[in-house]
Design goal:
By secondary structure, the protein is of the alpha/beta class. It contains 21 helices and 22 strands. The strands form four sheets. Strands 6-7-8-3-9-10-12-11 form an eight-stranded mixed β-sheet, with helices on both faces. A six-stranded mixed β-sheet has the order 18-19-20-15-21-22, sandwiched between helices. The longest helix is centred in the first third of the chain and has 18 residues. The protein is globular and about 70 Å long.
Length: 595
């Protein structure tokens, strides 16, 4: 191992305990001191499993069967449980995805950071440890005064909670830090601050970081090197610029084609199918089942790793071959029927929570057959406004009109026809479906409520499942038998089965990996074109907006600060707030140009 390599993973294999089926196999990675390695791939590829193994940890039912992991030359996998507990937090640390779950809600944040230092015996005195608490708070760009340190986690924003998590991770000056999707739930401005903090701390203090993510734009802006995982194996790795400029593996090319970019007008391109699960992986290349370049050689054996250029390695018989990927769907043309009334009109709407006003005098239209993207930072009022549109939030004033008819505040007070005409798709695909209902029962439920017979509802549900690129066979399955992308497709099918005129989508892709996200966007683009849907699409993912929406409305502190055609707002924003949002949005193209 080279002296400058801090984290060294060799031939790591992790199995489903007692079965011999590999979750991760033949994983070899090195991360030098002060550098960030981005580990990317779709959900289920094994990224988090590798990240946890760096802490010497495997989840229940999983076993690390072979290979080695060394940090500064110290082997981890041969250590006792007691030794590993001592090393976690001091030699190697972990930052999880959800900041609210990584902090103790019953303890003040200053106490939690101090506990980490005390547990690992950092410093020679309590005074020295208290000084380190103040120092690390400054390092993560948070106040270090007594009043702030005495706050509880619920008194902080999501971005502040994540930075406290980073402070705890960096407190003992570790050699290695594993970051598992730490910005997934954050808006672009907060994400930008957190990423800058990670980058600065790693470079300043010589920490080697393994950054697990499916957000390629984040990787392009943060990582020095990128490793691409598919079905438990590294299929390509190399310098960041080489991976994005000269991707060799077909899977890497699909990943980059699926990633929306704020500085590109290229449509996102999805990828059909799913990676094979442990125990069902073929003898040859696991990507052969989805690859357009597959040959008999690919099906028979897994390719060995070979260099493309210096430090750029790939495992593929067809490396570098293949034509440019093209989208399955054509962009939706903007409809300009001036005589047609808007599908949805929002007029001077104010909304509040228990008397505290969070939406102020909002007015805009959703034209018939078009998609309007509602964007802004967390807390800007986007979800409150859309829940008011759906009749799920009652504390609002003003007018919301559907096809020119004013809507009652609560969905319970609206006629059935109106309730069916506005359908809502929620953010989290894992909690939006009833776990004890089959897919068919969930999708047909709106029609049954509207009075349709069981036979009619079942037939309509089967047709809609086909339309969202599932099959009627899915009707007999339960939610826990589906992937996240499949669940979100079922939720969309349920919303569309009663043929609404307006579809409200609230952050419907935020919990999905980049390939599933692209497939869902392609689906929505096709449905908008084929069904003439009007959509109100809530998101803080600005690159997605260009792929889907014809109009953009920007909210800040509950007020509309800018609105207009998508191209105009994204390329020639007039308001400083919009300009800042765009500047904070990570971009693959901008990162590569900067290099």
């Amino acid at each position: 191992m080279s002296e400058h390599v801090t984290l060294d993973i060799r031939d790591l294999r992790i199995e489903v305990d007692g079965t011999g089926n590999d979750i991760v196999d033949e994983v070899t990675l090195q991360v030098p001191r002060g550098q960030v390695l981005g580990l990317v791939g779709e959900s289920g590829s094994g990224k988090t499993t590798v990240g946890l193994a760096v802490l010497g940890h495997a989840r229940k039912g999983v076993a690390i069967s072979s290979g080695s992991i060394e940090i500064n030359g110290r082997a981890l996998l041969s250590r006792s449980a007691k030794d590993l507990r001592a090393m976690r937090g001091s030699l190697v640390t972990y930052v999880p995805q959800d900041p609210s779950m990584s902090l103790n809600p019953a303890l003040r944040i200053g106490t939690q950071i101090l506990e980490v230092l005390e547990h690992h015996g950092f410093g020679s005195s309590q005074q020295e440890r208290r000084e380190r608490v103040e120092q690390v708070m400054t390092e993560v760009a948070l106040p270090n005064d007594r009043d702030f340190l005495r706050r509880y986690p619920h008194q902080l924003s999501g971005g502040q909670q994540q930075r406290v998590g980073l402070a705890m991770a960096f407190a003992c000056r570790p050699a290695v830090i594993v970051l598992d999707e730490p910005t997934t739930g954050l808006d672009v401005s907060t994400q930008s601050h957190v990423l800058a903090t990670v980058r600065d701390l790693c470079h300043q203090h010589g920490v080697a970081a393994l950054y697990v993510t499916h957000d390629l734009a984040v990787v392009a802006n943060l990582a020095d090197r990128v490793a691409v995982m598919y079905a438990g194996r590294i299929v390509e790795q190399g310098p960041t610029k080489a991976i994005f400029d000269n991707a060799q593996h077909p899977y890497t090319r699909h990943l980059t084609a699926a990633a929306p970019d704020i500085n590109s007008d290229e449509p996102v391109i999805g990828l059909r199918g799913r990676a094979p699960a442990p125990g069902k992986r073929p003898a040859g290349c696991a990507f052969a089942l989805r690859c357009e370049l597959v040959t008999d050689e690919c099906r028979e054996q897994f390719p060995v790793e070979r260099p493309v250029l210096r430090d750029h390695l790939v495992r593929c018989f067809q490396a570098g071959r293949g034509e440019r990927l093209t989208p399955a769907q054509t962009p939706v043309s903007v409809r300009r029927d001036s005589e047609s009334a808007p599908a949805l009109q929002i007029r001077h709407v104010d909304a509040a929570y228990t008397g505290h006003q969070v939406v102020h005098d909002v007015t805009f239209d959703v034209p018939r057959g078009q998609c309007v993207a509602l964007v802004g930072e967390s807390g800007s009022g986007k979800t409150t406004l859309t829940r008011s549109v759906g009749g799920l939030h009652r504390e609002w004033n003003g007018e919301i009109l559907l096809d020119g008819v004013a809507l009652a505040r609560s969905s319970r007070d609206r006629p059935t026809a109106q309730r069916l005409s506005i359908q809502y798709v929620f953010q989290n695909p894992y909690s939006s479906l009833h776990p004890r209902r089959t897919v068919g029962e969930s999708v047909s439920r709106p029609l049954r409520v509207a009075g349709a017979s069981a036979r009619e509802a079942s037939h309509a549900a089967a047709e809609m499942l086909e339309r969202v690129s599932l099959t009627a066979a899915y009707a007999s399955r339960y939610p826990d038998q589906l992937s996240g992308g499949e669940r979100q497709r079922v939720a969309i099918a349920r919303a569309l089965v009663c043929k609404p005129s307006v579809l409200v989508c609230d952050e419907v892709t935020s919990a999905l990996d980049v390939l599933v996200q692209a497939a869902v966007v392609e689906l929505l683009v096709g449905l908008q074109r084929d069904l003439g849907l009007s959509m109100l699409f809530v998101t803080h993912n600005l690159p997605l907006v260009r792929s889907l929406a014809q109009q953009v409305v920007v909210l800040a502190d509950g007020k509309v600060v800018e609105a207009g055609p998508t191209e105009q707002v994204l390329t020639r924003p007039e308001q400083e707030y919009t300009q800042r949002l765009l500047a904070d949005t990570p971009s693959i193209a901008a990162a590569l140009a900067a290099d």
